[in-house]
Design brief:
Layout lengths: L1 H25 L19 H8 L14 E4 L3 H12 L4 E4 L11 E4 L2 E4 H6 L21
Parallel strand pairs: 1-2
Antiparallel strand pairs: 3-4
Keywords: FAD, Flavoprotein, Membrane, NAD, NADP, Signal, Transmembrane, Transmembrane helix
Pfam families: NAD_binding_8
Protein name: Amine oxidase domain-containing protein
């Protein structure tokens, strides 16, 4: 009885491994050479870039049958969306700001360009900037 059960179990495991291997080998791997493509030309014209980066939300622009909705166009959101898109998923990225990029985008004011990442990092209360075992920011001065 035991040899028969062991034989059936072994046959099932071998069949499962064979089917899994055949199916997995047919899939397109996201980071393989066949998925790579050369980047398009660098767009330096601000109007052309803004046409892509500063589109307002409208329901008629959202495609149907999405596989993923990524909320936020920061570094993590754009990376997740790019990997999912390379894997063949239909993805949309939603951003509340008028420009994609999260902390990585810049803005201009009076002819000067500012990096937003540094601005976001500077609005902490003093106790949030304290390191464990060290006084809060500003306490060492007075």
């Amino acid at each position: 009885m035991w040899p028969v059960l062991l034989g059936v179990f072994t046959a099932l495991v071998v069949a499962w491994v064979t089917i899994y291997t055949l199916n997995y080998s047919k899939r397109k791997r996201v980071f393989s050479q066949e998925c790579l493509r050369l980047p398009g030309p660098l767009v330096t014209d601000k109007k052309q870039r803004d046409e892509v980066l500063k589109k307002d939300f409208r329901m008629d622009r959202v495609p149907e049958n999405l596989d993923a909705i990524v909320i936020g166009s920061g570094i993590g959101g754009l990376t997740a969306a790019a990997v999912l898109a390379k894997a063949g998923k239909r993805v949309v990225v939603l951003e509340q700001h008028d420009q994609a990029g999260g902390c990585t985008h810049t803005f201009e004011n009076q002819g000067f360009e500012f990096d937003v990442g540094g601005v976001y990092g500077g609005f902490h209360t003093p106790d949030q900037n304290a390191l464990p075992g060290r006084p809060a920011w500003g306490d060492e001065w007075g």
